[in-house]
Amino acid sequence: MSFTSAVEVGPRLRDAGYLADPRIAQVVFLAERLGKPILVEGPAGVGKTELAKSLARVHDRRLIRLQCYEGLDESKALYEWNYKKQLLRIQADADHDWSKLEHDIFSEEFLLTRPLLEAIRSSQPVVLLIDEVDRVEIETEALLLEILSDFQVSIPELGTITAETQPQVVLTSNNTRELSEALKRRCLFLHIGYPEIEREREILLTRVPDISEHLAAQVARVVSSIRNLDLKKAPSVSEAIDWARTLIALGIEHVDGAIVGETLHVLLKYQTDIDKAAKELAVE
Amino acid sequence: MSEVDSGLLPLLTDFIAELRTAGVPASMVEAMDAMAAIRHIDLADRTVFKTALAATLVKNARHYEAFNTAFEVFFAAHREPGAAPSNTIERFQQSGSQPDIADLKRLLLKALTDQNPDLLQLAIRRAIDELAGMEPGRPVGGTYYLYRTLRRLDLEELEQRLWVLSVGAEATALEERLARDDVAARIEALKEEIKAEIRRRLVADRGKPALAKTLRKPLLEDIDLMHATRADLDGLEAAVEPLTRKLAARLAQKRRKPRGGRLDFRRTMRRSLSSGGVPLEPVFRAVRPHKPEIALLCDVSGSMATFARFTLQFTYAMASQFARMRSFVFIDSVDEVTDVFHPGVDFVEALERVSNQAAVVWLDGHSDYGHTFEQFWAGWGRELSPRTTLIVAGDARNNYREPRADVLGEMAATVRALIWLNPEPRSYWDTGDSVIGRYARHCDSVYEVRNLRQLEAFVGQVALPRRGRITQLKAGSVRY
Fold first, then answer.
1. Is residue A205 part of a domain?
2. Total domains, chain A
3. In this structure, what DSSP letter does residue B434 have?
């Protein structure tokens, strides 16, 4: 079931457990209408991957995930010939006609599908998540281009495999390097930053069980204040959630200076950051 | 395009043209995507319209600022323009009456405490009418009008009063602090609103293309590092860190390359058993990990001050990536600052320590590359090895002193690679007291690094296979 209007996207994502601000909802809607992949960029821990997962839940589609890393290649991303099986096939009847055999061993039976090909060949529409695409080398990006624009894969021995159903593609990037123009041109771009206080409060309310309105509002405000400081690593949404959970586990209903001081290490990962935040928030 | 209002199409084309002039690389395909996107949206909603354009035309978060500026100029007129500015000014000039600032401040305070957007708009319009003193027809970008309005509104006092109103009597230190941030955010939003309103009036006065031209600023990646402002540097600092991570990955890439070592015959045979004795998958011995060793020599003299701050930022960010990196600063004498840039140290603090403690002045505090190299070679030369990459950052302006390129040559012969980063435009090289040409002879490569774009290019090229010592280190490929 696709979205019929942009206003519908927000509430439906919310039902799937994802709080989208109007901008995110708008881009998701447009991506679906235009049949384009979404390139989501932003700092770690703001819910980029979660967006793809929630989209899969909303549409009740299977999520196929390709985790990118340096050194990822065709045989891990697209497809690979199962040459051990091919070898066995050759050995099984050694005296066979070669031309027939050649035709035989390059058939789908001997093809190992990897995430990209799997997403294309699925008879049910899927959500394809290409996670942390900035980790692959710029040359490897070229592998993705054919899929992203035409939803097809060319295999020299078999020909071109076109998607039966168009997958909704979500790419995420932590922006460790500039992606190629060719890749970016094929996508809609969505930058997700840290949420506004109000939205973060709502995120906390949905993601942290047993949290009170009061505590959620307090946590959101403190975290937003800390993000304003000049830190090595600002606290992300997931760290805010961790912090709220910690507070609840400690049975705390109201945050004061002393408690912030004692639990800052959940939120911040560098000692210099912790010292600075403690000093700035006057909670030493 | 039948569904799209015919008036919108030329406007959109002009807008995209302006984006391109400002440096945002919006391609033809992207422009068509934008056109396609706006057919699916409610054009009456300005935010939705902006989101659709941003998602299709801007593919880099650093370009949002240029996009926002252009958008404000091109698509602002849909809003009620308020009182015509020129009439108001005339009225003032004729009557000579003093604007009632106290009343205006009360209005603003009320609008901000009640968080009432309509009241706020009214207050902002009045503030600009009465305080900005806008003069029609002047080719300005509005910064001065903004400054004039803000100064007379005295926002600091307003912020203080808002803050007092929003904290209770028995608030704790933490609550006070949170309230302060909250109020500061509201004041910041107010400034943005005032700025936007001024721009709207300027558009009405001078037309879109003219104003867009006045407001156009270089993109972050094109800002000249030698002449960057403090605000620019803050923006640049955020962009530097990912770059160093990339450089670290590039320099250490050999570590992860699976092939390149010698054939491991025993393990290849072992693995061939699963394919009936045919060695389908040759196994290679792992290459001994190449640990990046870097020595960075950075000119921090007066002529280089802005660039030095940037290179030190770069150094600082690199220090957290490389375990074995040593950093040095110099003017006419060189000193090691590796400890200062120890990971975990705050950058501002580190910068202070460098300027207070490093012994970089020998005679008069003018750059002396010759003496620096002599001293560096004598003091730390023994610690350079064929695994070291030596990076020098400086303009090679030697104040007509002895360049001692021969010493640099000796260093170059010792290290794995010698790279020079020069922040001057290439056309200035070897003019006046610049001796970059004599040093370049000994460098593996010299890069012009005047802006972030060029720094990115440098980082990108470091990994490319090149002639010279680096390629010779590559192990030969194994045939089978």
1. yes
2. 2
3. B
A273 burial (CB, 10 Å; 0-12 / 13-18 / 19+) is buried
- pLDDT (tens digit, 9 = 90+) per residue, B60-93? 888 898 899 889 888 875 445 444 444 444 444 4
Q: Cβ(B297)–Cβ(B381) under 8 Å?
A: no
Question: Average pLDDT of B116-144?
Answer: 81
Query: Chain B contacts of A283, Cβ < 8 Å?
Result: 173-174
Q: Which residues of chain A does B348 touch, with a Cβ-Cβ cutoff of 8 Å? A: 230
Domain of residue A46 covers: 6-70+122-191
Matching residue, tokens 């012969």: B413
Minimal C-alpha gap between A19 and chain B (Å): 18
Closest alpha carbon to B30 in B61, B6, B7, B58: B58
Whether residues A258 and A152 fall in one domain:
no
CA angle A190-A195-A198, nearest 5°? 135
Please indicate, yes or no, if residue A94 is contained in any of the structural domains: no
Residue B318 reports pLDDT greater than 60: yes
In contact, B287 and B257? CB cutoff 8 Å: yes
For chains A and B, CB pairs below 8 A equal: 110
For chain B, give the percent of residues with pLDDT over 70. Answer: 83
- What's the pLDDT score for residue A108? 83
- Scan residues 112-151 of A and list those with Cβ closer than 8 Å to B: none
- At residue A209, the 3 state secondary structure works out as coil
Q: Do A256 and B172 touch (CB under 8 A)?
A: yes
- A178 with A203, same domain: the answer is no
Q: A113 pairs with which residues across the strands?
A: A79
> Does some domain include residue A182?
yes
CA distances from B216 to B73, B225, B234 (A): 11, 18, 19
| Residue A168 located in a structural domain | yes
> Contacts of residue A189 in chain B, CB cutoff 8 Å?
54-56, 58-60
**Do residue B27 and residue A185 have CB atoms under 8 angstroms apart?**
yes
Strand order in the sheet with B417-422: B334-336, B324-330, B293-299, B388-393, B417-422, B445-448
List the CATH number of the domain containing A186: 3.40.50.300
What pLDDT score was predicted for residue B479? 31
The torsion defined by the Cα of A212, A213, A218 and A224, in degrees rounded to 10, comes to: 120
pTM: 0.75
Among the ranges given (A134-138, B238-242, B258-262, B410-414), the one the predictor scored with the smallest mean pLDDT: B258-262
The DSSP call for residue B142 is S
Domain identity same for A172 and A202: no
| End-to-end C-alpha distance for chain A, whole angstroms | 53
B246 vs A contacts (CB less than 8 Å):
176-177
- Sign of the alpha-carbon torsion through A130, A136, A140, A145: positive
Q: Are residues A158 and A276 in the same domain?
A: no
Q: Are residues A140 and A271 in the same domain?
A: no
Give the minimum alpha-carbon distance from B465 to chain A in angstroms, rounded to a whole number. 14
Domain stop point among A191, A210, A237: A191
Where is the domain boundary, A156, A191, A226?
A: A191
Dihedral sign, CA of B34, B40, B46, B51? negative
- Give the closest of B55, B182, B256 to A30, CB-based: B55
Let me know whether A141 and A57 are in one domain: yes
3-state secondary structure of B122: helix
Q: Are residues A238 and A143 in the same domain?
A: no
The contacts found for B425-430 with CB under 8 angstroms, 24 or more apart, are B425/B450, B429/B396
Q: Please name the residue of chain A whose CA is at the shortest distance from the CA of residue B272.
A: A84
Return the bridge partners of B324, or none.
B293
| H or E element that contains A73 | none
**pLDDT digit string, tens, across residues B183-202:** 888 888 888 888 888 888 88
Interchain pair B29, A281: CB under 8 A: no
A145, A66: one domain: yes
> Which residue does chain A place closest to B275, by CA atoms?
A84
CA B467/CA A212 separation, integer angstroms: 64
